[in-house]
Amino acid sequence: QLQACGGGLVQPGGSLRLSCSASGSIFSGNGLGWYRQAPGKQRELVASITSGGSPNYADFVKGRFTISRDNAKNTVYLQMNSLKPEDTAVYYCRVFGTIYWGQGTEVTVSS
Fold it and tell me: Is the pLDDT of residue 37 over 80?
């Protein structure tokens, strides 16, 4: 139902854009979120966006990451700038209020 992509290997200070697309209309009227899970750590919320388009960010990504959504394309994005090694993780998208999670896309920040 959810297909996430855009991860990869990037040097510190670099940028990546993640996207998560849904089949059907599961985004409709629901908030969306991006989570991440680093090796040996719990999954944590990175950013979320309401059905109306209002974003919210974890303190550790404020000013560096931007979440957005395109309801016509059933897609949510996460623009990640000024990446740090500690951003290395598998990133997951989620549709709040449903059972739907994306399969994860791996981001590695390393020189």
Answer: yes
